[in-house]
UniProtKB/TrEMBL annotation:
GO terms for biological process: DNA recombination; DNA repair. A zinc finger (C4-type) spans 58-73. May play a role in DNA repair. It seems to be involved in an RecBC-independent recombinational process of DNA repair. It may act with RecF and RecO. PROSITE patterns: RECR, TOPRIM. The gene is recR. Keywords: DNA damage, DNA recombination, DNA repair, Metal-binding, Zinc, Zinc-finger. Gene3D superfamilies: 3.40.1360.10, 6.10.250.240, RecR Domain 1. This is Recombination protein RecR.
Length: 205
C-alpha cells in the first residue's frame, strides 16, 4: 500500500495491528474517522486510554472490573457458594446474559494449551484451588468450551480439587463439541447451566 501521507500510514499501521483488521479495513476505518467531527476521534482515543489506564482485574474472580471487586462479587444477592469456572470475560458476559446463574465466577484467563505454551502456571488456577480450600464453596461448575484444551484444563483442576468435599459439575453439552461458549445462543447456554451434570459422569463418557 502506497501512502501519500506519513500520518495516514502510521494510523493505518496501528489500526491494522488489531485482530481481524487487514490494511484495507484499517484504511477504511481511518478515512471514516477523518470524515467525522474531530471530537469523535477524541472520544475513541479517550475511551481506549481510560480502559487501559483505569481497568482492574477483580481481586476475587479476575473478571475485568472498574473497582477492586467487580460488580458481581460485590453483589450480596449472589450465591457465593457456587462458582462457575470460565476461560475469559466474554464467557462471563455470555452466561450473565442468560440470567440463569446466580453464583460467582472464576476467570482463568485462558486454557491449558501445550501447543501455545500455556501451562497451568500461566492461568489463575492456584487462586481457584485456594478458594476451594479456604472458602465455603459448595459447588464448582466447569463452563469451558468443549475443546481438547478445555477438557484438559477441566481435568487438571478436577485432579487438584477432588480431595475436597465439594460438588463438581460441568455444563450440559447442548453446546456441541468444539463450540465456543460466547457463540452459543442464550437459551441453549442457559439450559446447559440449569441442566448441568456431575463432572465425573462427563469424563466417563
Ligand atoms: Zn469478581
Amino acid at each position: 500500500m502506497d501512502f501519500s501521507s506519513k500520518l495516514l500510514e502510521n494510523a493505518v499501521n496501528e489500526m491494522s495491528r488489531l485482530p481481524g483488521i487487514g490494511k484495507r479495513t484499517a484504511l477504511r476505518l481511518v478515512l471514516h474517522l477523518l470524515k467525522q467531527p474531530k471530537e469523535n476521534t477524541a472520544y475513541l482515543s479517550e475511551a481506549l486510554l481510560h480502559l487501559r489506564n483505569d481497568m482492574k482485574n477483580c481481586e476475587k474472580c479476575h473478571n475485568i472490573s472498574d473497582t477492586v471487586l467487580c460488580a458481581i462479587c460485590n453483589n450480596p444477592k449472589r450465591n457465593s457458594e457456587i462458582i462457575c469456572v470460565v476461560e475469559d470475560i466474554r464467557d462471563v458476559m455470555a452466561i450473565e446474559s442468560t440470567s440463569q446463574f446466580n453464583g460467582l465466577y472464576h476467570v482463568l484467563g485462558g486454557k491449558i494449551s501445550p501447543i501455545e505454551g500455556i501451562g497451568p502456571q500461566n492461568l489463575k488456577i492456584d487462586s481457584l484451588i485456594k478458594k476451594v480450600a479456604n472458602e465455603e464453596v459448595k459447588e464448582l461448575i466447569f463452563a469451558l468450551s468443549s475443546t481438547m484444551e478445555g477438557d484438559t484444563t477441566n481435568f487438571y483442576i478436577f485432579k487438584q480439587i477432588e480431595k475436597f468435599n465439594i460438588k463438581i459439575s460441568t455444563i450440559a453439552r447442548g453446546i456441541s463439541v468444539g463450540d465456543e461458549l460466547e457463540y452459543a445462543d442464550e437459551i441453549t447456554l442457559g439450559r446447559s447451566i440449569v441442566h448441568r451434570i456431575p463432572f465425573e459422569q462427563s469424563i466417563r463418557g
